[in-house]
Amino acid sequence: MGINPIVIFFASIFTSNMIFSNFLGMCSFIAVSKEVETATGLGIAVTFVLSITTILNYFIYKLMIYFNIEYLRYIIFIIVIAAFVQVLEMILERYVPNLYYALGIFLPLITVNCAILGVSLFMVIREYNFLQTVGFGIGSGLGWALAIISMAGIRSRINENNLPEGLRGAPITLIITGIMAMAFIGFSGIVQIS
After folding, report:
1. What is the structure's pLDDT at 84?
2. Whole-model pTM?
3. Which residues contact 175 (CB under 8 A, 6 or more apart)?
4. What is the mean pLDDT of residues 141-152?
5. Which residue range forms the structural domain that includes residue 85?
6. Which pLDDT belongs to residue 118?
7. What gap in Å lies between CA 173 and CA 28, rounded to an integer?
8. How far is CA 160 from CA 30, 146, 150, 152, 157, in A?
9. Which of 34, 79, 98, 162 has the lowest CB atom count within 10 Å?
């Protein structure tokens, strides 16, 4: 049976957050966390992509095991992720053009966001069943969104203050990320799934 899917869901948001405990998906996290609105849009997009691609990759992995081709999982997972992000990009361009242009180059970069592939690989390594996979995929996406939206809120407040030139941009973002990661360690006594 393993761990309850609800426990996995909450653990992947807080104690096993992709940003704060695994440091996966940092490039877009640092680059897009300047404005809350853009960070929220990317957080929703990443959550959506993570949730759907993890479920799709679960079923595809089960087929790979059946056909004894699980050694191709990296390639096939990346193809699934790339195809899904391409479809999402076309939908956003058509129906939400403001968000599409605000995200700019970072939308196609969701394809190479290591958190997206990492969740699918963790799902395989940890041998999750379907419900555990759903909880893990959705929770990881929400955890990533929580991290980037929180960072955007903090950075918008910091931009109002005077910072030394050497701390502006990525340096202060990395310092804040480290402090936030330490804060999330406080949740680790509750439950850990890794």
Report:
1. 92
2. 0.88
3. 167
4. 94
5. 5-189
6. 93
7. 12
8. 18, 22, 16, 13, 6
9. 162
Average pLDDT on 92-116 reads 83
Compute CA distances 189 → 10, 14, 19, 64, 183, whole Å. 13, 11, 18, 36, 12
Percentage of the chain exceeding pLDDT 70: 96
Neighbours of 12 (CB within 10 A): 27
Task: Count how many domains the chain has.
Answer: 1
- Position 29 in a domain: yes
The CA dihedral of 2, 116, 183, 189, to the nearest 10 degrees, is 10
185 vs 77, more confident:
77
Q: Which helix (H) or strand (E) is 175 found in, with range?
A: helix 170-185
Check pLDDT > 80 for residue 56: yes
Nearest to 40 by CA among 102, 118, 112, 105: 102
Which has the closest alpha carbon to 51: 127, 126, 110?
110
Q: What are phi and psi of 151, to 5 degrees?
A: -65, -40
Q: Is residue 68 part of a domain?
A: yes
Find the mean pLDDT for residues 103-125: 86
Encoded amino acid at 185, one letter: I
Distance from C-alpha of 98 to C-alpha of 88, rounded to nearest angstrom: 14
Structural domain includes residue 130: yes
pLDDT at 128 over 60: yes
| Residues 111-138 as b or e (16 or more Cβ within 10 Å = b) | bebbbbbbbbebbbeeebeeebbbbbbb
